Amino acid sequence: MPDTKKYIENLSGAGKCIGVLTSGGDAQGMNAAVRAVVRMGIYVGAKVYFIHEGYQGMVDGGDNIKEASWESVSSMLQVGGTVIGSARCKDFRTHEGRLCAALNLVQRGITNLCVIGGDGSLTGANLFREEWSGLLDELVQSGQISEDAAQTHSALHIVGMVGSIDNDFCGTDMTIGTDSALHRIIEVVDAIMTTAQSHQRTFVLEVMGRHCGYLALVSALACGADWVLIPERPPKDGWEEQMCQKLSENRADKKRLNIIIVAEGAIDQNNKPITTDHIKDLVVSRLGFDTRVTILGHVQRGGTPSAFDRILASRMGVEAVLALLEASPGTPACVVSLCGNQAVRVPLMECVQMTQEVQKAMDEKRFEEAVKLRGRSFENNLNTYKLLSHRKIDTELPHSSFNVAVLNVGAPAAGMNAAVRSAVRVGITEGHTMFAVSDGFEGFYKGQIKEIKWGDVGGWTGQGGSLLGTKRTLPAKHVDKIAEQMRIHNINALLVIGGFEAYLGLMELQAARSKHAELCVPMVMVPATVSNNIPGSDLSIGADTAINAITDTCDRIKQSASGTKRRVFIIETMGGYCGYLATVGGLAAGADAAYIYEEPFDIRDLQSNVEHLTEKMKTSIQRGLVLRNENSNENYTTDFIYQLYSEEGKGVFDCRKNVLGHMQQGGAPSPFDRNFGTKIAAKAMQWISKKLKEFYRDGRVFANTEDSACLLGMRRRALLFQPVVQLKDETDFVHRIPKEQWWLRLRPLMKILAKYKTSYDVSDSGQLEHIVRLRAKDSSAI
After folding, report:
1. Could you say which of 111, 552, 562, 617 is the most buried, measured as most Cβ atoms within 10 Å of its Cβ?
2. Which residues bind ATP (predicted)?
């Protein structure tokens, strides 16, 4: 079979000029995207130009359009905002303005544009592309450019990346800046919660989102807010009464604080704005609660980009250059975006039209449709919030008489508590009696099992570690006692939240079903481990928080090196044999190298890395960052690599080493992990309810099929239930990692951005997808 793979080596940018600009409102991560475009462009042999101050710089020309060098984008990865400036530009909206812009580009030979901005900026770029040949004709007629120049530059190629903290652009799951804005909001909410608790206060928080409620909705999910108001789903008439009732119920339930989150564009059924002051007055007049309003404003746009935004922007920047290299005159302008865990290209105008349709639907009060048009990610967030937010009175609940137990297994991971809270509340809503098992399988066989109620998990989303307690003990040796406890408490289903031990434990329990009928119940595992080493899932709860911890530390370390100069840091990350944290952390922190077990390395590789850093010290970037996974090689230890670099770098650079250790497991969970944990556990609980009905026969639950013991994992674009037995072949049990790991495809990206020549398989990219297919109703999407 012929090799149909496509490699970066066969794509050349020689003779091409790419202009990169940021336009519209700034967003954290724009700099990471600019850096990736510049470095990838230079890597493939193209010339890359910064266009400063967005379209204004393109119109004004002169020094606003400057050639970029490799070093000129150094140190910008961790900076918020946009270093090359952004401006709202009136001139570009006029024909004369666009004519000036076309002249400025042709004079520099730029016929490829990479535009990073919101829908307005991208629409402007598309109009410019459509007018391009007409503008060149005008310039020829007025004698400003020659016929030859017009011929040479006859086609303008445009690729967009969406930089917007509101996540208000259809066709992409996440826009650059959204995750960082959520980080800012959650930091504020966590801080407000402690003061609100002290005084028994109600806080009304206004977050950004004039036309889109994404930030409000996800932050409400991530902090367990009592009430949320968003433009896409105005509250029904009489909502004031309902909201006040909910707040007073929560207070009666010993909850000392209330949080209400309002999107700045929140409206009622009649499209009238709902303001924070109106809500405050309502709460004070009807309930007499001490109420405060906090408007977050531009705090949400500021600060350093999160690890997710840096990786997203770096992946998109590289993808944008590939799209420009492959563009032909007939290719429509496209947007590079993210769908699930995959980079995709979608036609720019289809996205813009869909985004405008959402607004139109909202204006015409077709709110249900507006939510659907926003896409599956938004819809799922909304459904999960609805599921978790309304505590039904006992008389309203379906009563199932099933008992479901939840436990944490393995090492603690941030986000585990959010998953437990979600599972408990969804379980109660579905009518089950929920039991919490302390200390994993060890607590299970010792009988540390008690009923857990709705109020017991209040405030759990933002807590790090594992509040239930977690142990690495496996069940096989204690299976008799576990079966006995299952019988005593009449446990009809199990939800296990944990890492590799949870995976092994589920396999052991399933294997013991033949001896113990008590174990013939539906069981599901939700992956939660910082190492992200679970077969059957691209991501696990806790990994994002760990990556952010690594990235923050690396930022500080790089900053310390900026004073001393000529210093290389060797940093050891966790992960067992799995190189995910070292690789993805390296990409987010701008590392020069990351040593991992999955990609064997020898002394020649170490030597070439030292030589590479020696060359780097001759430039203006006089610092290096090297990550090493803790088990990447038993002989080339962190100490060995530190000593080797110290010796080989003598007189050129000095070395320091840093072992990050357990700080990667601790800390408050990131917004992503809170949200992921909440959604995945809710889905697992709904699966349990379905299976309990399916396997209920003659007054008892009996489940003995392969598909009644599953792992719920995220695969590319969807959440899938996979029987653990079927995952055996995908697992390297000795090293506790999956045999195939998607993130290894990101390694060439890290190397390219660190100026290494490497082979990069780009077969995965390049397919232009249509937006309608993207939003096909997919219930398994997250």
Report:
1. 111
2. 25, 88-89, 118-121
pLDDT reading at 195 higher than 70? yes
Sheet with 202-207: strands ordered across: 227-229, 258-263, 202-207, 291-295
- Beta-bridge partners for 176: 163
3-class DSSP state of 270: coil
Binding annotation:
25, 88-89, 118-121, 164-166, 201, 208-210, 264, 292, 298-301, 472, 529-533, 567, 574-576, 630, 656, 662-665, 736
What whole-number distance in Å separates Cα of residue 188 and Cα of residue 374?
Answer: 26
Quick: pLDDT tens for 46-73. 999 999 999 999 999 999 999 999 999 9
- Residue 682: which residues within 8 A CB-CB, separation 6 or more? 384, 387, 388, 422, 423, 426
For the record, the structure tokens of 663 come out as 């700080």
The closest of 506, 470, 495 to 685, measured between CA atoms, is: 495
Which pair of tokens denotes residue 526? 């939700």
Task: Tell how far CA 423 is from the center of its chain.
Answer: 22
Strand extents, DSSP E, 485-549: 493-498, 523-527
Amino acid at 469: G
Residue 218, CA distances (Å) to 133, 309, 517, 716 in order: 44, 16, 42, 21
Can you state the angle between helices 416-429 and 376-389, rounded to 10 degrees? 70
Tell me, rounded to whole angstroms, the distance of Cα 256 from its chain centroid.
Answer: 31
Percent of the chain at pLDDT above 90?
A: 78
Going along the chain from its start, the domains and CATH numbers come out as: 11-175+305-358 (3.40.50.450), 178-301 (3.40.50.460), 393-541+668-730 (3.40.50.450), 543-665 (3.40.50.460)
User: Known catalytic residue: 290?
Assistant: no
Residue whose entry in the numeric block shows the structure tokens 């000529």: 566
Residues paired with residue 714 on neighbouring β-strands, in sequence order: 719
Euclidean distance between CA atoms 179 and 534, whole angstroms = 24
Instruction: Tell me the C-alpha to C-alpha distance, in Å, between residue 522 and each of 138, 387, 695, 710.
Output: 71, 22, 8, 8
Q: What pTM does this model have?
A: 0.94
Instruction: Find all residues with CB under 8 Å of 717, minimum gap 6, and list them.
Output: 339, 340, 341, 342, 778, 781
For 625, phi then psi, to 5°, come to -135, 120
Q: Which residue of the set 26, 60, 166, 592 is catalytic?
A: 166
